[in-house]
Design brief:
By secondary structure, this protein is an alpha+beta fold. It folds into three domains: about 90 residues, no CATH class; about 90 residues, Multidrug efflux transporter AcrB TolC docking domain, DN and DC subdomains, CATH 3.30.2090.10; about 150 residues, Multidrug efflux transporter AcrB transmembrane domain (Multidrug efflux transporter AcrB transmembrane fold), CATH 1.20.1640.10. Helix content is about 55%, strand content about 20%. Strands 5, 6, 13, 14 and 15 form a five-stranded antiparallel beta sheet that branches. The chain has a four-stranded antiparallel beta sheet with strand order 1-3-2-4. A two-stranded antiparallel ribbon has the order 7-12. Helix 12 runs antiparallel to helix 13. The protein is elongated. It starts with a helix and ends with a helix.
Length: about 450
Amino acid sequence: MKLIRLFTRRPVTTIMLFCMFLTFGGYSYFKLAKDNFPPIDITVSLVARDQRDLSSMEAVSVFRQLLADIPGVRLTIQSSSSGGPGGDQKPLNVDVRGNNMDDLFSVSEEIVKIMKNTDGTADVDMNWRLGKSELKIIPDYRRCADYGITTAQLAMTLRTSFSGNVGSRYRVDDEEYDIRVRLAEEDRNDSSNISGMPIQTPKGMVRLDSLAKVEFIEGASKIFRADRSRSVSVGANIGPNFALGNVQALVEKQISEIKTPAGVRIKWGGDTEMMKESFLNMAISLLLAIALTYMLLSILLESAILSLALMSTIPFALIGVILSLVVTGTTLNIISLMGIIMLVGIVVNNGIILIEYIQELRATGSLWRDILVQACRVKLRPILMTNTAIMFSMLPMALGLGQGAELRAPMAIVAIGGIFSSTFMTLYILPVLYSLIESAREFFGRKKNITTQ
């Protein structure tokens, strides 16, 4: 409760906070942890986006700075919009797997140092925790055999000494109470007397340290396993204005230089693994969208070459996509990739309108050289009106207005940039490509006629 009071007394702007409540065992906005104590989860709900000046990621940075000076506490702060509920795994997560805990811990410590020294990481921590001190007794089988006592008998003696044995029962009215016989509390809690504890053997009383090795160790509070091996996870959150892919590349390059002991494996997890799978699926979807669009245009225009010229509007759109991401400081993520896939079906419409009108004029008997500029002049207005309407309709989403718009903003930013660049470049470059195609057709047609004659 002292930690909670420290948290609530911090000077946080009231307009940022709507309510605060505690949860135990689930996902939370904050996670406070201290050695040998269970973590405390604090969930902070922000007011609606139009009632505050900070985004959720900016609020995370503010809270991280306000609470960084609490002594003896490992603090993890994460926005639900970046990771969302679903566990304790952080966006940047590395699993170190093997069977030797000493090797796992040493490699994990090196990875923690690498992550802490890498720009863009925050709240670096591992899931391996030291538990309470444990008394470890390792029997010496040869000495036990010399004194005529088995390890099972030694274990039973120790169990009786510390846990006790029910020797009798005490009855009061209709209630019975166990009478447990064991060492006195001061003897059980005094670690200096444990090694000299007398053990009854067939050859007389013997000190415990004559039959076994007695040592105190720091045992792990919890052991994690994955793929039938012990596992230690090292995770970190991503700081504001940093992309997960860029930070992951920097960390992976340094981790590859670590000399791992035999039997130790390093595997990426968290959002890094999901990001690779999602990017692969999105790349396949993008290729399928391009292929299907090309086949449809070839069927409608009855020309594979003209369809290829129309597909050139997609690279024009990518120029605007890249510029919009750079100008706004937006990262290339799954949402923005969805916007790029959506652009495949939008930007070709400009070319379809232009090429279809040129083909209609040529059907009346006009030469393509005479009608090319005229077609661009006539179709300039409808192309500009259509694309301007689309861009303005996406502007509120790109500005992050409305509930949950921050998550969808990259899609709108990518769409606006791609449509803007493809609109103007289509009006200039597509007619040039059309003229080159028709000129090549006329050239090879004349050459074929000369060869035939």
